[in-house]
């Protein structure tokens, strides 16, 4: 094994030198941890056993850094022996588990490109993902292989099949077979060029068609650096990891990843007691959660109505020193409620980014609380300052591709436009989606800027404020432009409104050509005895007249329950609501 694999690198300059000399591979961090801290916990996976009619027993499977490194080495040897080798693409549909960790690190060590998809995106989207990516291998649990057979996933391209956690009923071999044929010798890890394809991560499709984002190890390294430098994560910490991809960064940071018993694609269904038990058992110092979990854990840990005099009814998380929230903007009210379980001074760090580029900026909860009045007044949601090394700019709203970057494209502070980002964690292209790449990427010398598809502005201090998706704005025939987040947050201040969604509908005015007008869909708070009479609409109209962002909004429709994405339970499918609203408006 070469010295460059086993040396303990303590500075960014040393890391950069290694990348130049030998290429990149994030597994170098695991190898270093296995050498320097072999007995430290790397992974712990919680499982709940027992029947549905009895109290579940929580059990834990653990690996230290030495075991994780050795087992991933053995699997890398075994994958090669089976014919899965460098440059091949392999679908990985394995639930968060010890096998998920050992397999993923084995694939990275072997230079095999894992294809990671969100099972929650739906059968139709999944099939399209596999058509586009043309995987050479399919590695999955038995349920995934059954779906592969039923729906024809990867038909015509997949040559190698590996079943994880069961028998190979649909061909190929089991993971146990792979391990048996693997060597116990250290694996000679593959080093890739900085921008060489290391993985394909498909977007969830919650804000559009799923697209395969090409990840390089340079991007992974940038994400690891951000977590270490900007979020101050240190070796020896323990993280309650609820998102599979980011759970891999734990061992890369010398931090143990604690995986709770839950469906990672549907966090809203998680059992809070299981998560609390995992945090307590391992004294987790970090949590990586999305807004749906923040709300669910807050409701469970701090029952509604529990005040300072009822401390006994509140769950406390004294070991937690940092909470990282990402995926969608969490509401200020849910963060405040959740924070009652945290020790004084512990913040929820709200991160902004996307599959194509993450993280980009962060906003600590105490600072966020100070922006409530601006947000409620239609000023957008503050997502904070840029991460080190990230450049955030705002350009004018346009649907046209922009091939070459020019500083003349920048808008002034306070002007709302499309958010454009540049940094080492920004992806260069989509996989086999030239049109999407052309639409989203801007070449800036040797660097690539990414158009986020989100609208916002930079304030005078350089902080970024979100104003919603570009596709969700409403350009009314009157000439006025409405932005989703500013408009909706104004109406969300009404005590009976749970959430709202801005859409545009066509109406027949004086002209034969239909006019586009803004309409607000309203979902009421079911916990309240809500009035549906003329009084409610009068109050909504009164709110609209008080703000320049909502002037001329006169149309409101009550919707029983908004369609939202299953992962975050926060991203509203406004396209579906727009169709519903148009049909209702014609009735």
TrEMBL record:
AMP-dependent synthetase/ligase domain ranges (all copies): 34-431
MF (Gene Ontology): ligase activity
Record PROSITE patterns: AMP_BINDING
Keywords, sorted A to Z: Ligase
Name the UniProt record assigns to this protein: Acyl-CoA synthetase (AMP-forming)/AMP-acid ligase II
Species of the source: Shewanella psychrophila
């Amino acid at each position: 094994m070469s010295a460059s694999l086993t040396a303990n690198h303590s500075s960014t300059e040393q890391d950069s030198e290694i990348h130049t000399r030998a290429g990149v591979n994030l597994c170098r961090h695991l190898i270093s941890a296995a050498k320097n801290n072999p007995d430290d916990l790397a992974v712990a996976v919680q499982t709940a056993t027992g029947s549905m009619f009895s109290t579940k027993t929580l059990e834990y499977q653990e690996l230290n850094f030495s075991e994780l490194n050795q087992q991933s080495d053995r699997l890398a040897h075994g994958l090669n022996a089976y014919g899965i080798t460098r440059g091949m693409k392999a679908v990985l549909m394995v639930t968060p588990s010890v096998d998920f960790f050992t397999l993923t690190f084995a694939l990275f060590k072997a230079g095999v490109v894992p294809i990671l998809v969100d099972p929650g995106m739906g059968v139709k989207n999944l099939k399209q993902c596999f058509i586009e990516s043309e995987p050479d291998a399919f590695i999955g649990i038995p349920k995934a292989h059954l779906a592969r057979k039923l729906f024809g996933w990867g038909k015509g391209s997949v040559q190698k099949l590996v079943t994880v956690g069961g028998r190979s009923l649909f061909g190929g071999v089991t993971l146990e077979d792979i391990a048996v044929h693997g060597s116990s010798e250290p694996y000679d890890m593959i080093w890739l060029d900085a921008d060489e394809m290391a993985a394909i991560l498909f977007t969830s499709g919650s804000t559009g068609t799923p697209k395969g984002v090409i990840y390089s190890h340079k991007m992974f390294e940038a994400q690891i650096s951000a977590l270490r430098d900007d979020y101050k994560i240190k070796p020896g910490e323990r993280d309650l990891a609820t998102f599979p991809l980011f759970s891999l960064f734990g061992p890369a940071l010398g931090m143990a990843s604690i995986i709770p018993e839950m469906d990672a694609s549907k966090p809203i269904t998680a059992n809070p007691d299981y998560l609390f038990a995992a945090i307590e058992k391992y004294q987790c110092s970090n949590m990586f959660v999305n807004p749906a979990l923040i709300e669910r854990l807050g409701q469970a840990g701090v029952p509604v109505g529990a005040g300072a005099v009822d401390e006994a009814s509140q769950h406390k998380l004294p070991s937690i020193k940092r909470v990282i929230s990402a995926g969608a903007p969490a509401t200020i009210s849910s963060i405040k409620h959740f924070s009652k379980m945290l020790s004084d001074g512990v913040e929820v760090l709200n991160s902004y980014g996307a599959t194509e580029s993450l993280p980009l900026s962060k906003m600590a909860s105490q600072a966020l609380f100070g922006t409530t009045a601006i947000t409620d007044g239609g000023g957008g949601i503050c997502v904070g300052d840029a991460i080190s090394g990230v450049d955030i700019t705002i350009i004018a709203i346009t649907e046209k591709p922009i091939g070459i970057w020019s500083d003349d494209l920048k808008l002034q502070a306070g002007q709302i436009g499309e958010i454009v980002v540049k940094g080492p964690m920004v992806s260069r292209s989509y996989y086999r989606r030239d049109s999407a790449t052309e639409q989203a990427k801007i070449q800036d010398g040797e660097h690539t800027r990414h158009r986020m598809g989100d609208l916002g502005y930079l304030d005078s201090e350089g902080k970024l404020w979100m104003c919603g998706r570009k596709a969700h704005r409403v350009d009314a025939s009157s000439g006025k432009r409405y932005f989703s987040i500013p408009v909706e947050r104004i109406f969300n201040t009404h005590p009976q409104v749970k959430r709202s969604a801005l859409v545009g509908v066509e109406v027949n005015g004086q002209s034969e050509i239909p006019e586009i007008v803004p309409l607000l869909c309203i979902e009421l708070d079911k916990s309240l005895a809500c009035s549906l009479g003329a009084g409610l609409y009068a109050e909504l109209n009164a709110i609209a007249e008080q703000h320049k962002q909502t002037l001329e909004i006169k149309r409101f429709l009550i919707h029983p329950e908004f369609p939202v994405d299953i992962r975050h339970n926060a991203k509203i499918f406004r396209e579906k609501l727009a169709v519903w609203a148009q049909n209702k408006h014609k009735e």
